[in-house]
Design goal:
The complex is a heterodimer. By secondary structure, chain A is an all-alpha fold. Chain A is built from 20 helices and no strands. In chain A, α6 crosses α11. In chain B, strands 5-4-16-15-14-6-7 form a 7-stranded mixed beta sheet. The chains are: A mainly alpha, B alpha/beta.
Chain lengths: 481, 1000
């Protein structure tokens, strides 16, 4: 009976295999481990060139931050009334990008979405790196990061005899982001343990053996290990799931709890979460397409993965568009004249270009995904994923800068212009993000070997006819046909 | 250390006692420990004698440092090093003194800390101050510490000495003085006046010329025309019910003393309901939109040269009511004439210094007709001094003599004629023809560079002198600090010229006054004069002159018809740089112009219509040219500017001002001629194609939201005003201007503000003129840094108290209103709850306090402040300035580093001082300190305010001025619909409009 279903070509089309190319377990281990085990000259030159480029951007970031710390926030374009500009825009942007990782790892795991296995590792890594980039901004946006420890964390102190102000959303932010970072890092590392053990077993050098041995925490692959691992992974997934919703909700409180029209909005938490998932998926998309192409991972990251992600981009993009319209409606419906002016000003004031940039990138561009052809076109989705990220950066800029630029008293209205330090710092964090990702892709298994194998076992069961000469218990199945 | 103590003191066998710590410290373990921890100073620390030596040396070097930096003048006062019995180091001492700006004397009280003048206040006993001080007076203290001040006597370009100068002066062969000319600014010092008489007696053929770039010659000439004698005119604005100002910016640029504002505001303050009927009505006819125009009920735009015709027509209209015309000018004229006539002896016509003598004479005639002379305007005689050599005429004669090589010795006492003289005189070239040119000045300026000798001049707070007001009240100019750079005063230099036996300024001044004061109790009277700041000897009598109408008519008939071709350029002093005197004063450069809100520069002000016609935009460079005179300057569109007339303020475009003032703005003197000294007709305006960036502190000029998507913007009820008529009909009209209902909190009030001191402020928008005195006073009191043009362009100016200017009405001919914005000290402060480190919290007395050392600089508080009164130190503004400027800083206020948020504190240091004083006054019977009375705490802005517009005090005290004002119906809180509960509230302005000119 099952054989007939399996051979149904229509089913194959609607539900294609998640791993292509007829890989077996050994192939998977070889394919993925070989990237990390390659000698320096074996890794393609284009990798090292790219790393050199992104690495030099990290140097630029270091220089810009040093310049900032030496001189103060004045080297940025922030002013009065626009006290937050690119700094907090970048912070929210990176935090948003960090959302897809947890979503893919945790929520899709809990919903048993098998297709996540080949992308979850890199998405999680991306989360961690994005949160690291995000964290730089609150740390440095005061211009005096040496004071950060004491304002960020409630360290008992005798010189001030005071705690932080727990009424301040910035403090909630610190807890939300640091919790998120901790859980994400743990989740990522837990998932890595079986793969690290694989690398340890294959390692040749003493250093590698020691490092992987240390990191794999004595993993032996026993059933007991697997049982504990699965339980732990499940608990972490359960812990992370509410965080996907809470982190960006709390980030949105930075604005929603204020009195500034354009910030003081109850719609912010769901709106921010949807936007974060939207931008996170777009960023995962960008990176995966590059990785898929440069590291030849077409068999693991299939068009089905990409299409599924595009569907999520379409949904979240539409939610974001709906939120934009709701904001406008409420601005009119509330009868609050300040609110009304703020939204008119967003769309038609001096920052109209930023607003329409945001609107067209975020609302219009994902609508192409209603077409299946476009949804499955890799070059097209690459372009859209970048456009979405540009749009989401502008969304944060529009919310932060335009609301501040024209608030209550017309006398204090102003306009923000970035300096080269603003721009270079942002580019620098992109460099840092890419550098960390490139190092990760080269030195750690960027696809979860053990999880892919889990999917593969199932796939073999379903799609055995595709493969000739595979050594599995189901090998004879086609012969019956 | 713990282990050491154990080593030393742990009993080994039974209890061990030590006699002293010395004994303990001699233990070998302790010595070893010390040597290990502090290798280099170990020996010194352990050797008592050596330690004492170090301490002695340190004490001596501290003492000597103080001696060098802050020595008090010798002679009368003992230097700091010799401590006086009752002197408390670190506590402030106040001294009276007096300053002359543009020939006008104003008495001041200067607060000093350990011999450093730090803060200027008005002297309440001085008739020109009455306790107030202007922005320029507030900023004058910064000039003492200007690092660009001249520090050496210069001979040629070489450093020289005062002794060498004295020798050189003896060497001059002056004979009868036929080759000697002296050029000074207007002399307002009785002692110097006496020395001048002596000098002219010694050298009878010498001439002494007085020249001020902003001269008041026209007023004097007008009084000669009208009354046949030179008079000082004293308008009594507090006595006038109807005032017409003909191009007289008496609330702003044309009144260097606070007196006019002080008088005018008396008729604008509404302390009780009865005062409403006393509110005066002000009409203004003027070319550029001045502060006086902004405070006027009705204003007529008119080119400066057309004011004469207006005065003529008014005279006719007062005599016989004219037929009502249809255009704005004739309606205005008819209404003013009718109103003035109705006002009678309570009416007043005043004329500005830029108008020619004949307009002044016409005003005297109109005042005479109204019966106002002697009532709302009084006169004192100005004829004491031969003034043939005064003003621009005097300078012209002098330049001719210099060019004709009749001048062998020219002594320039203060001023900067090479920069400020009219361009046609080419004073620099004329100066080169003088064999011995001597310049006395505070900076090596343009004139110093062109002179043979340059002498550093002492600042008025560094040298003894005296001043006399035009009403005849004299004051002693008392120094607080020895000249920082060895300068000498004008008096001392003239004494040197005369080779008087007494060359010390103090003795010269004291000897002069000894002759004036009655012999009985002379020393006491002298000391009392120093204490009070006013000498009890009147120098001038009030005169009642007789008007000669025929002379006025003849002058009117003879006056040339104003040229109407081309564009008319008006030259006005700058509210910041004045005539260039304050161009190196950073506080002034960063004080926004009252109307344009321009800082660090000036601009060619053009009307919107003219800008449209010639397609000019803000910042376009134009060349203003007439004949051979030409200047390139940037345009700024000024609503309310008369069409066909542009204004370019003086005092900018300096080349040798110093690090602050060099190359700031455009030099109006390049097109200013002695012929057309104030209004120059016939100019051509041509775009050069280049652009310039103006730095302003306010970008959006009206309370109306801009039109977006065709939706007409709403007018936000920020500055609230109404007419007296409406207010009487419905007193709640001011309160009801809010569009949205006030949000009510669902939470019960957490803090009880009904007991103890609860500080609050009320600002009367009716009397506030927008003069900027409070802005600079706040800067001086609170060590607010100057940030520079580039930072202002980035919106980072630091003034804790700013003045917002909004235009009301149409763009061509709007009204303007001025609103000071300090911190509102909200009871529900939006800044407080968002701060992650609780660096800004509420005090039990209702103050929104800043803990600077706790602030980490997230800037969330500033973002969340609806009033945007919080200022962030984006860069290390204080550290990036010359060290000497640390001397001007108020030691009672912390200096903030970069990364720290700051804002108005209601001068919390003054509140604390008042509490300390109350405590020091002893305890009451119940053991508590006495109550702080209303007026014990005066904020810096309130103290200097010439309009008495700011009231501050305990709002829990029902008798305090502030709580009485807050009870008025016109009291409102800015944005109180946000439920911020601001402690600073505003009193809506009541306008006494003429119903014929404005339907209410």
């Amino acid at each position: 009976m099952s054989v007939a279903v399996r051979q149904n070509p229509q089913l194959l089309e609607t539900n294609p295999p998640l791993v292509k190319g007829g890989k077996d377990f050994h192939d998977v281990t070889e394919d993925i481990s070989s990237i990390t085990e390659a000698k320096v000259f074996e890794t393609p030159m284009k990798y090292w060139i790219t790393l050199a480029c992104t690495g030099s951007i990290v140097v630029l970031l270091g220089a810009m931050l040093a310049w900032l710390v030496a001189n103060g926030i004045g080297v940025w374009g922030n002013n009065r009334p626009i006290g937050w500009a690119w700094d907090i825009t970048n912070f929210v942007f990176w935090i948003g990008i960090g959302h897809a990782g947890t979503l893919i790892s945790a929520i899709l795991f809990l919903f048993r979405q098998k297709w996540r296995t080949s992308i979850n590792r890199s998405a999680e890594a991306m989360t961690i790196f994005a949160v690291m980039c995000a964290g730089l901004f609150p740390l440095f946006h005061t211009g005096r990061p040496w004071r950060a420890a004491y304002w960020l964390f409630p360290i008992p102190n005798t010189d001030l005899n005071m705690w932080q102000n727990f009424r301040s959303p910035l403090i909630w932010d610190v807890f939300a982001v640091s919790t998120y970072f901790t859980i994400s890092a743990l989740f990522w590392f837990t998932g890595l343990v079986p793969d690290l053990a694989t690398l340890r077993d294959r390692a040749t050098g003493t250093v590698k053996k020691f490092v992987f041995g240390f990191l794999s925490l004595g993993w032996r692959g026993s059933a007991r290990h697997w049982r504990n691992y699965e339980a732990g992974y499940m608990i972490l997934a359960g812990l992370s799931t509410p965080l996907v919703l809470s982190v960006h909700s709390v980030v949105s409180f930075d604005f929603a709890t204020s009195v500034i029209p354009g910030w003081h909005t109850t719609i912010f938490p769901p709106y921010f979460v949807a936007g974060a998932i939207f931008s996170g998926f777009a960023c995962v998309m960008t990176l995966l397409i590059i990785a898929r192409w440069t590291l030849n991972l077409h068999d693991y990251i299939t068009i089905k993965h990409l299409e599924n992600m595009n569907k999520i981009i379409l949904v979240t993009g539409s939610i974001v568009g709906y939120a934009y319209c709701t904001e406008f409606f409420i601005a009119w419906y509330s009868g609050n004249p300040y609110e009304r002016f703020t939204f008119l000003n967003r769309a038609f004031g001096p920052y109209w270009w930023a607003y329409w940039m945001m609107f067209s990138c975020n609302v219009f561009s994902p609508q192409f995904y209603w077409s299946k052809t476009l949804r499955r076109s890799v070059p097209f989705m690459f372009v859209i994923s970048i456009i979405v990220n540009i749009g989401m950066w502008f969304e944060r800029f529009v919310i932060i800068a335009t609301s501040l630029s024209r608030d209550f008293l017309p006398s204090s209205w102003g306009y923000f212009r970035p300096t080269y330090v603003d721009i270079s710092t942002f580019i620098g964090t992109i460099g840092l993000f890419l550098t960390l990702f490139l190092l990760f892709a080269r030195f750690l298994p960027m696809i979860a070997i053990s999880e892919v194998k889990g999917v593969l076992a199932n796939e073999k069961h379903l799609f055995a006819p595709e493969r000739q000469g595979a050594v599995t218990g189901h090998e004879e199945a086609p012969k019956h046909a | 250390m713990t282990s050491l103590v154990q080593i030393k003191f742990a009993p080994k066998t039974g209890p061990k006692y030590w006699r002293s710590l010395d004994q303990a410290a001699n233990a070998p373990e302790f010595r070893q420990w010390v040597e290990r921890e502090f290798p280099s100073t170990a020996a010194d620390m352990l050797d008592g004698n050596s330690r004492r030596t170090i301490l002695k040396l340190m004490a001596a070097s501290f003492g000597m440092a103080g001696l060098v930096a802050c020595s008090r003048p010798e002679l009368r006062f003992a230097p700091q090093a010799r401590l006086q019995e009752d002197y408390i180091p670190g506590s402030p001492y106040n001294y009276t003194t007096s300053v002359v700006i543009n020939g006008q004397a104003t008495g001041l009280v200067v607060k000093t800390y350990d011999g450093r003048p730090v803060k200027v206040e008005g002297n309440p006993d001085h008739p020109n101050s009455l306790g107030a001080a202007t922005a320029m007076m507030q900023a004058s203290v910064l000039d003492i510490y200007d690092p660009d001040r001249s520090k050496f006597v210069l001979n040629g370009k070489q450093d020289s000495t005062w002794e060498a100068f004295a020798t050189a002066v003896r060497g001059l062969n002056l004979a009868d003085g036929s080759g000697l000319r002296i050029l000074s600014e207007t002399v307002a010092s009785p002692t110097l006046d006496g020395l001048r008489t002596q000098l002219l007696a010694k050298y009878p053929a010498a001439r002494w010329v007085e020249y001020d770039p902003v001269s008041r010659e026209n007023s004097r000439a007008g009084s000669i025309l009208a009354f046949g004698q030179a008079l000082y005119v004293h308008p009594q604005f507090d006595k006038a019910k109807v005032i017409l100002s003909l191009d007289f910016d008496f609330l702003g640029l044309d009144s260097p003393s606070p007196l006019a504002t002080k008088q005018f505001s008396k008729r604008r303050l509404v302390a009780t309901e009865e005062d409403i009927d006393n509110i005066s009505r002000l009409y203004v006819v003027e070319s550029q939109f001045s502060l006086t125009g902004a405070n006027a009920e009705h204003r007529l735009r008119s080119r400066g040269s057309e004011v004469k015709q207006f005065a003529q027509d008014l005279l006719a209209a007062v005599n016989a009511p004219p037929a009502a015309g249809s255009d704005r000018r004739s309606q205005f004229l008819a209404a003013v004439a009718k109103d003035l006539k109705a006002g009678g002896a309570e009416a007043l016509v005043v004329v500005g210094p830029r108008q020619p003598a004949v307009v002044h004479a016409l005003a005297h005639q109109i005042n005479q007709l109204l019966g106002a002379n002697g009532k709302t305007v009084t006169f004192t005689s100005a004829a004491r001094v031969d003034r043939v050599d005064a003003g621009v005429e005097g300078l012209r004669t002098l330049a001719a003599a210099m060019n004709g090589s009749q001048v062998s010795t020219l002594i320039v006492l203060g001023g900067n004629p090479v920069y400020s003289a009219p361009v046609d005189l080419d004073f620099g070239a004329a100066l080169a023809k003088v064999a011995a040119s001597i310049h006395l000045g505070q900076a090596v300026n343009e004139t110093a560079a062109a002179s043979k000798w340059h002498l550093p001049e002492a600042h008025f707070m560094e040298a003894w002198g005296d001043t006399r007001t035009t009403s005849g009240v004299a004051s002693i100019q008392q120094p607080m600090i020895d000249p920082l750079y060895g300068g000498k005063s004008t008096i001392e230099v003239v004494a040197e010229l005369l080779d008087l036996p007494e060359k010390r300024g103090y003795q010269i001044v004291k000897n002069f006054w000894a002759a004036q004061l009655p012999a009985v109790g002379r020393e006491n009277a002298w000391r009392k004069s120093l204490n009070d700041g006013v000498v009890p000897v009147s120098m001038m009598a009030v005169v009642t002159p007789v008007l000669n109408a025929a002379s006025v008519s003849a002058a009117v008939a003879a006056a040339p018809v104003a040229a109407s071709n081309g564009i008319e350029v008006a030259f006005v002093p700058s509210g910041s740089a004045w005539d260039g005197t304050f161009s190196n004063n950073a506080w002034m450069q960063e004080t926004p112009d009252s109307m344009t809100k321009l800082v660090w520069g000036n601009a060619v002000l053009v009307s919107p219509a003219m800008a449209r016609q010639q397609s000019l935009a803000n910042g376009d460079m134009v060349s203003l040219s007439q004949g051979k005179y030409k200047v390139d300057a940037a345009v700024m569109i000024q609503p309310g500017q008369a069409d066909g007339a542009v204004t370019l303020s003086l005092g900018y475009g300096r080349t040798r001002s110093g690090n602050v003032g060099d190359a700031v703005g455009f030099n109006a003197n390049l097109i200013r001629t002695s012929e057309n000294f104030f209004y120059a007709p016939g100019f051509a305006v041509a775009k050069t194609g280049a652009t310039h960036i103006h730095a302003t502190t306010q970008e959006h000029g009206t309370m109306q939201e801009p039109e977006l998507l065709g939706i007409v913007g709403k007018i936000r009820p920020v500055f609230r005003e109404t007419t007296i008529e409406e207010y009487k009909k419905e007193p709640a009209v001011i309160k009801e201007m809010v569009e949205v209902p006030v949000l009510e909190s669902i939470h019960p009030a957490v803090v009880d503000y009904s007991t103890g001191y609860q500080w609050g402020m009320a600002i009367d928008l009716g009397s506030c003129t927008g003069c900027n005195a409070c802005v600079v006073a706040c800067q001086a009191e609170n060590n607010t840094p100057v940030v520079g043009k580039d930072q202002v362009l980035r919106g980072r100016e630091m003034h804790w108290l700013r003045i917002d200017r909004y235009y009301v009405g149409d763009e061509e001919d709007p009204r303007a209103v001025e609103q000071p914005i300090p911190c509102m000290q909200c009871e529900n402060a939006p800044c407080e709850y968002v701060c992650p480190v609780a660096a800004t919290t509420h005090s039990p007395e209702g103050l929104n306090d800043m803990a600077y050392n706790r602030c980490v600089g997230t800037r969330y508080c500033a973002n969340n402040c609806p009033y945007k009164v919080r200022h962030f130190n984006f860069l290390n503004y204080h550290k990036n300035q010359p060290d000497i400027l640390a001397m001007v800083q108020n030691p009672e206020v912390t200096v903030r580093m970069r990364g720290i948020m700051e804002k108005c504190t209601y001068c919390v240091q003054r509140i604390q001082n008042a509490k300390i004083t109350a405590k020091a006054d002893g305890r009451q019977s119940d053991g508590t300190p006495r109550e702080i009375k209303d007026g014990d705490v005066v904020t810096a802005c309130q103290q200097t305010c010439p309009a008495d517009a700011i009231a501050f005090g305990n709002i829990n005290d029902p008798t305090s001025r502030v709580s009485k004002l807050k009870k008025q119906e016109r009291n409102y809180g800015l944005l109180e619909e946000l439920q911020t509960k601001p402690r600073t509230t505003y009193l809506g302005r009541l306008r006494n409009v003429n119903p014929e000119l404005e339907k209410s």
